[in-house]
Write a structure and sequence with these properties.
Layout (H helix, E strand, L loop, with lengths): L1 H16 L6 H11 L1 H22 L4 E24 L3 E29 L1 H68 L5 H36 L10 E2 L11 H11 L1 H21 L5 E17 L2 E17 L7 H39 L1 H28 L4 H35 L5 H8 L2 E2 L1
Antiparallel strand pairs: 1-2, 2-4, 3-6, 4-5
Length: about 450
């Protein structure tokens, strides 16, 4: 409860920083409520939870009531019977005949059955319990995946906005250079090539701006569809400052956490357990079963027949043990068992494959974080150097030491360096969240820490 209060307070604090901006945490909370992927995960988890009740019901008694009514004819003939009654003595070789034609027939019975020993049911119960656990793991994996997808969509819009802004800034500079080159050519102070170079660059930038506008519109639409926010309320923020973690635990620690806690890897292990129980279930088809059975019933036939009015009533009550021993199934049991054994081998191989992929992905994310700080420092220095070069090139262009093409190239390089730094910061943050997800530790607290690194 304290953690939830802390998350709520921190989210409110972030909102107070910028009332207009939408931070990553707000985007996630909106996606959690609106994205169909979240609804699918919640429904699947709720459905999986019902398997626990199914598992428990396998060892509870089953009670059934059956009844029927209709018209019935019955005739019976008994000969060679012995008859004795008070006052009549004893007679042998007596015959009895009964007859009911189109009489009224009613019957009912109640049967209760309690399994006592049933290996197949034991395996089924284990499978259902594993299925419920698997549903929880699938939900956890879906939650983490939705966090990563929401983060990717958010940062895609951040990059698209920055790219468009830089292109427009560059376009303004190119238009200014084009006007200046044309004026200087008319004065005879610059060759016509400067005008052509500036014009060609301006047309190329115009095409890039149109493409960037489409890219931004698409990124915005995807994020709006996922969060349900209005376009006016969606103002994303970009990462700034130090985004790489200061103290990164060693790779061996992350690999251990991932092997123990990765939800998809744990899900594969659960599937392997279910496959083993399937093998056990088919092996148990040849095993005997023992049930406690209780039954009570009544049958009545009444009407008239060849000998006048007649009726027959029969009542049964029984309680005892019922033993079933399978003898021959036509080869189906052995065929099913062979299939289950092969599927068990497949499930074990899938666990090994998932373990290998998890190790590789964990190593890649960790290496991305380990080199992230050095990479960011280098790119920050590149931005500073490109801005210094741009300033020097502008000055050189004014005094005639640099051409218009030199200035345009400097403008382009400065914009590219700025965009590369932003992209590197985003990749570091994504690797940070990805590493947490691989270790099964990505939650709202981790997402909130990343959201705090964004600035409007």
């Amino acid at each position: 409860m304290k953690q939830h209060h802390f998350l709520a307070a921190a989210a409110l604090a972030l909102c107070a920083v910028s009332a207009q901006a939408t931070d990553l945490m707000q985007a996630w909370q909106a996606a959690r409520q609106h994205d169909p992927q979240a609804a699918v995960a919640d429904a699947a988890r709720a459905a999986g939870e019902t398997r626990r009740a199914q598992a428990a019901s396998l060892w509870r008694p089953n009670v059934a009531l059956s009844g029927g009514a209709g018209r019935m004819s019955a005739n019976s003939a008994t000969s060679g019977a012995q008859f004795a009654a008070p006052g009549f003595g004893q007679s042998s070789g007596v015959s009895f005949d009964t007859s009911v034609n189109n009489g009224s027939s009613t019957r009912w019975s109640v049967t209760a059955r309690q399994p006592l020993y049933n290996p197949e049911r034991s395996a089924q119960r284990q499978q259902l319990e594993i299925g419920a656990d698997s549903a929880d793991l699938q939900w956890q994996a879906a939650q983490q995946d939705l966090m990563l997808v929401t983060t990717q969509r958010y940062f895609d819009m951040v990059l698209a906005e920055r790219k468009l802004a830089l292109l427009r800034q560059q376009q303004t500079a190119v238009d200014r250079a084009f006007t200046e080159a044309k004026d200087r050519f008319e004065l005879g102070d610059a060759p016509i090539t400067d005008t052509h170079e500036a014009s060609a660059r301006a047309r190329g930038l115009q095409a890039q701006v149109l493409a960037a506008q489409s890219e931004l519109e698409l990124a915005q639409t995807i994020l709006l569809d996922a969060t349900g926010l209005s376009p006016d309320a969606l103002q994303v923020m970009a990462p700034a400052g130090e985004v790489a973690p200061r103290d990164l635990p060693p790779l061996a620690q992350w690999l251990t956490l991932a092997q123990e806690n990765n939800p998809l890897l744990r899900l594969q292990r659960a599937n392997a357990d279910a496959a083993r129980q399937e093998t056990r279930k088919h092996s148990a088809l040849a095993a005997p079963t023992l049930d406690l059975v209780a039954q009570a019933g009544r049958e009545r036939l009444s009407g008239s027949g060849d000998f006048g009015a007649a009726s027959n009533t029969s009542r049964q009550q029984m309680i005892g043990l019922q033993l079933n021993v399978p003898l021959y199934t036509g080869g189906m049991r052995s065929a099913k068992l062979d299939e289950a054994l092969r599927l068990e081998d497949k499930a074990r191989a899938e666990v090994e494959l998932a373990s290998q992929q998890t190790r590789q992905q964990t190593r890649a994310a960790w290496l991305g974080l380990q080199t992230g700080q050095a990479r960011l420092s280098a790119l920050a220095e590149a931005v500073t150097a490109s801005q210094a070069r741009l300033g020097a090139t502008r000055l050189g262009r004014q005094v005639g030491d640099r051409t218009t093409l030199d200035l345009l190239n400097a403008e382009n390089d400065a914009s590219a360096a700025d965009l590369a730094l932003l992209q590197a910061r985003i990749e570091v943050l994504q690797n940070r969240l990805r590493l947490q997800a691989l270790a099964g530790q990505l939650d709202e607290a981790q997402l909130l820490q990343v959201s705090a690194l964004l600035q409007n």
